């Protein structure tokens, strides 16, 4: 395979990462991005590549095979930004896909939460792993430390459902 073909595949993967997502949950919070995205802006990587930047401020043009091979692009450079996720939420909202838009908003909030903390929260949300107080403390932490209000509400809702369904630690 030649270098141009590999580079084209890398760009295609990045384009898909920034423009394709899956479904599930509620209405979108206000966006703080400098752009208002509409369905006609989809996919962002093709129609507005200048709007797409990574957490390390790399642009799509920075993702070349040469840059990857010379370590000018690393795994850290591949992280999506909350701004890009909020643009995706705006597009989903404009398309009438409110549940998908909410997922993008939740994901945007989670970019501020360290990976190890996300894993802890994931494990705590499994049935019979946490008490109601522990789940409420997680929700408070998400809201107060990371300003993740949507995610905090999600954990509070899970806690209420676990009480109702007897899925808390000690209920088994």
From TrEMBL:
<protein>
    <submittedName>
        <fullName>Propanediol dehydratase small subunit PduE</fullName>
    </submittedName>
</protein>
<dbReference type="InterPro" id="IPR036091">
    <property type="entry name" value="Prodiol/glycerol_DeHase__sf_su"/>
</dbReference>
<dbReference type="InterPro" id="IPR003207">
    <property type="entry name" value="Ppandiol/glycerol_DeHydtase_su"/>
</dbReference>
<dbReference type="Pfam" id="PF02287">
    <property type="entry name" value="Dehydratase_SU"/>
</dbReference>
């Amino acid at each position: 395979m030649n270098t141009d073909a590999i580079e084209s595949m890398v760009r295609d993967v990045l384009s898909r990462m920034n423009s394709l997502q899956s479904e599930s949950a509620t209405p979108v919070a206000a966006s703080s991005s400098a752009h208002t995205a509409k369905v006609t802006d989809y996919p962002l990587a093709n129609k507005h590549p200048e709007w797409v930047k990574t957490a390390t401020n790399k642009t799509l043009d920075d993702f070349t095979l040469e840059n990857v091979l010379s370590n000018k692009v690393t795994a850290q450079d591949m992280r999506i930004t909350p701004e890009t996720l909020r643009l995706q939420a705006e597009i989903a909202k404009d398309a009438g896909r409110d549940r998908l838009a909410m997922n993008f908003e939740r994901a945007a909030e989670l970019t501020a939460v360290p990976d190890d903390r996300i894993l802890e929260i994931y494990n705590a949300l499994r049935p019979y792993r946490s008490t109601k107080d522990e789940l409420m403390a997680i929700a408070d932490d998400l809201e107060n430390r990371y300003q993740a209000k949507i995610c905090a509400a999600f954990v509070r809702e899970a806690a209420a459902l676990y009480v109702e369904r007897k899925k808390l630690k000690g209920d088994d």
